[in-house]
Specification:
It holds the Pfam family ECH_1. With 259 residues, the protein is α/β, with parallel strands linked by helices. It has eleven helices and ten strands. The strands form two sheets. The chain has a six-stranded mixed sheet, with helices on both faces.
Length: 259
């Protein structure tokens, strides 16, 4: 990464923070940011000390997707073609979604275009009450990418997904919460601290169980119903043998005996 990376990775106390750092372009992706995003996501997921990941951003917006101005100018946002650029960013999204590490998003301000895909790569999203979230691809004559068509309908339902991609609509924070797109709406000044608090609960709790629960839900479309039941049984059987589960079960049993 460069001395002033467009995506920073900071890790401490079992929490990895992936920070989008291109505020002058509303954290829109160009080729450099795409590469740094994928490096950061892979490093966070592959770090055995990391129990939870937080995605947040600098500036007044979470992420505006691709750098449209650079596309218009033929700049480095289209180095090797938009398809290749999307492919690089997709690697990072796939790493996060396919991992057994819970991902928390602190999405302040506007989230639009491919930024919606970044938001959908999180498992728990905290937004500010002034946040706006939308697709806006069609306004540019473009089609959704960065996992939007792969994940949006699963998150909010097919009809609502169509409403969002077939219009220039930006959801308010309250609407995004009502649709199930985000988990919490807080004061704009508290987005970061609330996301950190949620991450702390995961990191200090039964983080491996949280991670496996995330994996089971995220990977379910790849299995039949019967296969999913079998995978649930296998996973809970494996979890029962861990020291983490044994200690927590013993503590619960002791507390119940005293009641």
């Amino acid at each position: 990464m460069t001395d002033d990376p467009t995506v920073r990775l900071e890790t401490s106390d079992a929490v990895a923070r992936i920070i989008l750092n291109r505020p002058d372009r509303l954290n829109a992706f160009d080729a450099t940011m795409a590469r740094e995003w994928t490096v950061a996501t892979r490093a966070a997921v592959n770090d055995p000390a990391v129990r939870v990941i937080v995605i947040r951003a600098e500036g007044r917006a979470f992420c505006a997707g691709g750098d449209v101005r650079a596309m218009a100018a033929g700049g480095d946002a289209v180095e090797g073609g938009v398809e290749r650029l999307a492919g690089v960013i997709n690697e990072g999204i796939s790493v996060l979604v396919g991992s057994s590490v819970p991902v928390i998003a602190a999405a302040h301000g506007t989230t639009a275009g491919g930024g919606l895909g970044i938001l959908l790569a999180s498992d728990y999203a905290v937004v500010g009450s002034d946040s706006r979230i939308g697709s806006l691809y069609a306004d540019m004559g473009l089609t959704p990418d960065l996992s939007v068509t792969a994940q949006l309908a699963r998150a909010v339902g097919e009809r609502r997904a169509l409403q969002l991609v077939l219009s220039p609509r930006l959801l308010s924070a309250v609407e995004a919460y009502a649709w199930g797109l985000v988990a919490e709406v807080v004061d704009p000044a508290d987005v970061g601290s609330r996301a950190e608090a949620v991450a702390r609960v995961v990191a200090d709790g039964a983080s491996s169980a949280y991670g496996q629960a995330k994996r089971l839900i995220r990977s379910q479309p790849t299995r039949t119903f019967e296969e999913q039941l079998a995978e649930e049984a296998r996973t809970i059987g494996a979890a029962l043998t861990t020291g983490e589960a044994q200690a927590r079960i013993a503590a619960f049993a002791a507390k119940a005996a005293r009641a």
